[in-house]
């Protein structure tokens, strides 16, 4: 075999043909995967979808992220973005004051943006929001978040969290049409934040627990829109269960064990919720230009 | 020539930054300090990570993602102001 031995399609979920977008050339693919041309040839030979010597960037990202080589761009990006998971419990839970700005970086006339709502989780937003979404190209606020690590009392809920963790699911990038599809969790062992949350929320509800999904942002993870689950436990308290963060933390050496403990419902002070569930969008506008979020700590007066 | 070739070079920007960007986008001319690196295709998500590690290496410290946003990397002027302001 070639140098592709460390890059394998084993267990890979390839973007289905009807959603395949050949947006990445061979040289970029090799750069992204940290490999040479022969390794790309081997991957194509093994079944990596190619169209006119171009690849779907999502296939490459997913392959790189789960390659285990440590040298691919997605692995390096995740290693960078997830450093915060090694933080102490105090650092994950202490109240934080943050400046928040969400900006649609385009000239679209009609832009709708979601408003941060940490007040849903015991925090605060200044100025106090009168709506959950606003027609504006920028949303600016000072927000206060605070974490909570609560015991997950229900053995049924703990069992569902453990069931998800035991599936061996891989977090992947998927086309918009598949991003919320929770059936892929069990059928192909792949999930996005959205589909994992839907999978878990559906099972919580099927077990008789009030549960919903929530989307929002994570401090320190740039423009990523994240999703998690809110579920009402046996003690009547609505708690946060984040199946994907548990998945990520399992791969971070030295991650705080609170992140992976199925008996703990962890809401870190990094979560900035909206009022939207999975399926909602934090921005509606008429073009493909990115919407950027800036969430940075504010130095507080003592 | 491309439009960016008419932009003035950015003063105070570490050479390793401009060298890095030139390596990643060899067809570009001089990059203006306010030129959007993402919209013009000079910097993509792959290069972004590499650039982060390079800046960390140059500063000899970890960059806390709590203190930055993607906007800090959109132009070389912003990179300079955010990470190398003492040299500017």
Largest interface, C-beta closer than 8 angstroms, per-chain residues: A-B, 23 and 17 residues
Uncertain residue segments of chain A:
1-5
Average pLDDT over all residues of chain B: 78
Please count the helical segments of chain A: 9
CATH third-tier fold name of chain B: Non-ribosomal Peptide Synthetase Peptidyl Carrier Protein, Chain A
| Largest beta sheet: strand ordering of chain A | 5-7-3-17
Topology of chain B as a string of helices (H) and strands (E)? HHH
- What integer value in Å does the Rg of chain B equal? 12 Å
List the secondary-structure elements of chain A in sequence, H or E.
EHHEHHHEEEEEEHEHEHEEEHEEEE
* E-strand count of chain A: 17
Question: What's the quaternary structure here?
Answer: heterodimer
SS class of chain A: alpha+beta
Number of strands of chain B: 0
User: Major sheet of chain A, described briefly?
Assistant: 4 strands, antiparallel
Structural classification of chain B: mainly alpha
Describe this structure in words.
Chain B: It comes from Actinophytocola algeriensis. Chain B: This is Acyl carrier protein. The complex is a heterodimer of chains A (302) and B (88). In chain A, β11 (211-218) and β12 (225-232) form a beta hairpin. Chain A has 302 residues and is an alpha+beta fold. In chain A, α3 packs across α4 (73-81) and α6 (155-166) packs antiparallel against α8. In chain A, 26% of the residues lie in helices and 25% in strands. Chain A has a four-stranded antiparallel β-sheet with strand order 5-7-3-17, with no helix packed on it. Chain B is mostly helical and 88 residues long. Chain B has a single domain, classed as ACP-like (Non-ribosomal Peptide Synthetase Peptidyl Carrier Protein, Chain A, Orthogonal Bundle). Helix content of chain B is 38%, strand content 0%. Chain B has three helices and no strands. Chain B has helices spanning 15-24, 45-59, 76-83. The longest helix of chain B has 15 residues, at 45-59. Classes of the chains: A alpha+beta (302), B mainly alpha (88). At the A-B interface, α1, α4 and β17 of A face α2 of B.
């Amino acid at each position: 075999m070639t140098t592709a031995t460390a890059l394998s399609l084993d267990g890979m979920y390839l973007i289905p043909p009807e959603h395949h977008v050949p947006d990445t050339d061979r040289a970029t693919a090799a750069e992204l995967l940290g490999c040479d041309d022969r390794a790309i040839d081997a991957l194509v030979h093994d079944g990596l979808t190619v169209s006119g010597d171009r690849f779907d960037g999502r296939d490459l990202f997913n392959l790189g992220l789960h390659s285990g080589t440590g040298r691919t761009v997605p692995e390096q990006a995740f290693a960078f973005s997830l450093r915060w998971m090694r933080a102490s419990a105090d650092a994950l839970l202490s109240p934080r004051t943050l400046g928040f700005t969400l900006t649609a970086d385009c000239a679209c006339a009609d832009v709708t943006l979601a408003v941060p709502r940490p007040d849903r989780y015991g925090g605060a937003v200044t100025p106090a929001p009168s709506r959950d979404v606003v027609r504006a190209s920028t949303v600016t606020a000072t927000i206060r978040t605070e974490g909570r690590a609560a015991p997950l009392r229900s053995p049924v809920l703990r069992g569902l969290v453990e069931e998800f963790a035991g599936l061996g699911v891989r977090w992947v990038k998927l086309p918009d049409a598949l991003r919320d599809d929770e059936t892929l969790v069990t059928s192909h062992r792949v999930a996005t934040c959205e589909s994992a949350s839907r999978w878990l929320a559906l099972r919580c509800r099927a077990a008789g627990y009030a549960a919903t999904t929530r989307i929002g942002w994570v401090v320190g993870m740039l423009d990523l829109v994240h999703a998690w689950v809110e579920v009402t436990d046996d003690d009547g308290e609505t708690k946060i269960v984040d199946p994907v963060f548990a998945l990520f933390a399992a791969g971070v050496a030295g991650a705080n064990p609170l992140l992976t403990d199925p008996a703990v419902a962890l809401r870190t002070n990094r979560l900035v919720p909206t009022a939207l569930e999975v399926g909602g969008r934090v921005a509606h506008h008429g073009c493909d230009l990115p919407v950027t979020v800036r969430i940075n700590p504010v130095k507080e007066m003592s | 020539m491309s439009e960016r070739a008419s932009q003035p070079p950015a003063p105070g920007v570490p050479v390793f930054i401009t060298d890095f960007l030139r390596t990643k986008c060899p067809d570009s001319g001089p990059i203006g300090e306010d030129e959007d690196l993402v919209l013009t295709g000079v910097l993509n998500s792959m290069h972004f990570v590499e650039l982060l590690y390079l800046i960390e290496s140059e500063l000899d410290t970890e960059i806390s993602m709590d203190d930055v946003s993607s906007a800090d990397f959109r132009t070389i002027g912003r990179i300079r102001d955010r990470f190398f302001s003492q040299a500017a």
